[in-house]
Amino acid sequence: MSTEALAVLAVTVAVAAFVQGSSGLGFALIVAPVAGMLDPGLLPVFVLAAMIPLNLYVAWRERASIDLRGARWISGARLAATPAGLALLLLIPDRSIGLFVGIATVLAAVVSLVAPAFTPGRAAYLGAGAVTGLTETATGVGGPPLALVYQHRPPAELRSTVAACFLVGEVASLGLLFATGEGEPGHLSLAAALLPVIAAGAWLSRLVHHRLDARRMRLCVLVFALVSGLVLMLGL
User: Fold this and answer.
1) Which of 28, 55, 131, 218 is the most buried (most CB within 10 A)?
2) How far, in Å, CA of 41 to CA of 143, rounded?
3) Alpha carbons within 13 A on the beta-carbon side of 91
4) How many CB atoms lie within 10 A of CB 132?
5) pLDDT tens-digit series, residues 110-129
6) How far apart are CA 79 and CA 209, in angstroms?
7) The pTM of the whole model exceeds 0.90
8) CB–CB of 142/132 below 8 Å?
9) 60-110 per-position pLDDT tens digit
10) Can you give the C-alpha Rg of the chain in angstroms?
């Protein structure tokens, strides 16, 4: 990867860490399309690995607000769907991964924008976990289903619960990808090299997460995701 591309990726990761640390979603929606444009081979391992320290931090920071009941149902379904996500990844030709990520990103953003308010129950938790396990393992993008479930809950509950569910799922997905030979160790090294910018974004989110207008930031993230996903779909 060229120095210019690495700089673009680093800035993107820092911004995404700030956005997700503040609002509870957005890291994969921001990073996956950009990474896909720079180097489709980075998906999904780099995105999954880069999210682990961020989600560990957010889950710990707001651990008192985690919805343990919802997290258990979501994580169970997420783990059950992980092998299907791997199968989907194996079925996608390398040259089509950018297109697939673009489509997944756009669909996820559209659903997040238009979904009506509702009170989540067991079915919603299981559905969100299953869809997340499928799409996140295949592409690195899995946040919108969880955001839909928790979008009308207190911001701290959304941030902490989504982070905890992500953390469990990311470790499981990476473990399966590497166990089956689909993981690239160099992508873990790249994620580790970008830990300082992830930490910087997370630290900045600590200063403002309780004051930001989460709805407005969520809208900005989803609009960015729509534009980035369309760019990937069109191959620009």
Assistant:
1) 28
2) 21
3) 10
4) 29
5) 877 776 666 778 888 998 88
6) 29
7) no
8) yes
9) 999 999 999 999 999 999 999 999 888 888 887 766 766 777 777 777 778
10) 16
Q: What are phi and psi of 35, to 5 degrees?
A: -60, -40
User: Cβ-count burial of 64 within 10 angstroms (0-12 exposed, 13-18 middle, 19+ buried)?
Assistant: exposed
Query: Positive or negative CA dihedral for 17, 18, 19, 23?
Result: positive
The full 3-state SS of 43-64, as one line of letters, equals: CCHHHHHHHHHHHHHHHHHCHH
- Say which amino acid occupies 153: R
Q: In the numeric block, which tokens belong to residue 88?
A: 């989907």
Please give the Cα distance from 135 to 145 (Å, whole number). Answer: 10
CA–CA distance, 182 with 34 (Å, rounded to integer): 21
Half-sphere exposure of 4 (CA within 13 A, CB side): 1
